Amino acid sequence: MKELEERIRRDGIVEDGDVLKVDSFLNHQMDVELFRAMGREWARLFAGERINKILTIEASGIGIACVAALEFGVPVVFAKKSRTRNITGDVYHVQVPSFTHGGVSDVIVSKRFLLPTDRLLLIDDFLANGAALEGLTDLAEQAGATVVGAGIAVEKAFQPGGERVRAKGVRVESLARIKSMASGQIEFC
Amino acid sequence: MKELEERIRRDGIVEDGDVLKVDSFLNHQMDVELFRAMGREWARLFAGERINKILTIEASGIGIACVAALEFGVPVVFAKKSRTRNITGDVYHVQVPSFTHGGVSDVIVSKRFLLPTDRLLLIDDFLANGAALEGLTDLAEQAGATVVGAGIAVEKAFQPGGERVRAKGVRVESLARIKSMASGQIEFC
Known about the structure:
Order of helices and strands of chain A: HEEEHEHEEEEHEHEE
CATH architecture of chain A: 3-Layer(aba) Sandwich
Largest sheet of chain A: 8 strands, mixed
Structural class of chain A: alpha/beta
Strand order of the largest sheet of chain A: 6-7-5-4-8-9-10-11
Number of domains of chain A: 1
Helix content of chain A: 25-40%
Largest interface: A-B, 36 and 36 residues
Oligomer: homodimer
Number of helices of chain A: 5
Shape of chain A: globular
């Protein structure tokens, strides 16, 4: 998606070779008009797929997912990072390794909000190693729901997550795919 | 706002006398069309106030804030609950007591995204004891930004937060104000 690629070129900041900061428009300060354009693009790509719900993960997926959901006319469910070790039986639960903070997050979603009849679009801001997206896929599988596909804002195509998730048969639509950002130069696929 | 009150009556669940669960439409599963109607109501209430940015706090404020921001034509900044104890100098920082999880959260926002010229609308899903809203007000003050007001979805008017924040001169517009929910019966103000 040209608009997102141009924005990343203009406002993205490359740090330490493989960290891309897009916090001025994507995941700290958020340009909701850009999110609307992204939502329209996913709605075009997944037209006719009878998506009835969007599943995302806190925190930075939520804003993108909610604005995109307006274009689909469906509700959003966000998987929560649990702050207690006390996981009850009324939730689906998965452990997601965190590369930003280290360690593992317990990620949960209420069983009331993921159903076997659901046709889900997964949405997240980044796809790099694939841990968050695989966590969402796992939660959907526990519920017996159908994963129609995943809408990703920025995919670091030089990391293995995208390939691994696609190899499992998940359709992944990333609106900007970064081939390389060596020496601070961002190249898209 | 009638639409939100009716939804709370229909789908809200009162637990233990003073816990209101609205997780089927507000803060776990999210009805984005309802959020759009809420955004329009805040845009009407704050018309002419030259709001240029919305400030919210992760996680459950983000979806409401992003959809509402489309009605204002402004970006959103969300304050982050820090997962490290290592708070650097490039952020504004406040400690917010958590009544749901116990303890205190370190809440931060990048100094790049709150400016003295900003005219802020604060948005959150709940106002009860006022801790989160006071945290956001504090962050805005650190930046020298102007708080035009706060848009709250559900205020528990029988708890002291709303009164305390209003006493500081903040205009608070809560779309549903609950007077009492003793014995499971929800009464609005």
